[in-house]
Amino acid sequence: MAEARGSLLDLTVRDLLDVMAARTPAPGGGGAAALATAMAAALTGMASRFGDGAAAERGDDLRHRAAALADADALAYGTFLAAVRLPHDDPGRPVAVAEARRGAIGVPAEIAELAAEVAELAAGLARHGNPQLRGDAVAAVRIAAAAAGTAADLVVANVHGEEGVADLERARLLATAAGDHVTELDSD
Predict the structure, then answer these.
(1) Which end of the chain is more exposed for a tag (fewer CB within 10 A), N or C?
(2) What is the total count of domains within the chain?
(3) Which positions ≥6 away from 83 have C-beta within 8 Å?
(4) Locate the Cyclodeaminase/cyclohydrolase domain: which residues (predicted)?
(5) Cβ distance 54 to 120 under 8 Å?
(6) Cα separation of 181 and 176, whole Å?
């Protein structure tokens, strides 16, 4: 997991891909969704800079926030696994599992939120930005929409009972909204 080796952000791309391919539980889908969101935000910032630049600062902020969630997701999932591996007769296990589950739900829910915002920002650039950069903006929308959908799926996977249902519903709505931007651009 990220905490044992340092930040995923400090790895070369080759090493990052090797770490993601390793037989370890994290980084996994959440880290990939966070990094994809960061990449989509980077494309958004770049496309904005070739236009009026109005969306560049917001794109940069989203990129930094999403990138940090790659490590946060690995940590949250590692904490959840440690909690569920506690002995069933451990009196602190139910509380530890519940708290860890909140983190395992909260991080991908936040990724979905950021990815949906990136998709919206990039869709605006695809429509109204520099036409020479439309392809990059559309790529950002598609990548962000995929990341939002992935993050929503992870929220679904981590919800148990009533815990996290509001996050689940919100993540699904965000993923749908991000996907709608792709559909709208396809029909332009």
Answers:
(1) C
(2) 1
(3) 93, 96, 97, 99, 100, 101
(4) 12-160
(5) no
(6) 9
What confidence score (pLDDT) does residue 188 get? 79
Distance CA 38, CA 61 (A): 10
Per-residue pLDDT of the chain in tens (188 residues, 90 and over written 9): 334 468 999 999 999 999 999 998 889 999 999 999 999 999 999 999 998 999 999 999 999 999 999 999 999 999 999 999 999 999 999 999 999 999 999 999 999 999 999 999 999 999 999 999 999 999 999 999 999 999 999 999 988 877 778 888 999 999 999 999 999 999 87
Show Cβ contacts of residue 38 under 8 Å, excluding neighbours closer than 6 positions.
62, 63, 64, 66, 67, 70
The amino acid present at 37, given as its one-letter code, is T
Distance CA 88, CA 132 (A): 59
Polymer length in residues for the chain = 188
Distances (CA, A) of 118 to 6, 48, 62, 127, 164: 27, 12, 7, 14, 23
Domain CATH for 101: 1.20.120.680
Rounded to whole angstroms, the maximal C-alpha distance in the chain is 62
Contact 114, 176 (CB under 8 A): no
- Domain of residue 49, residue span: 2-187
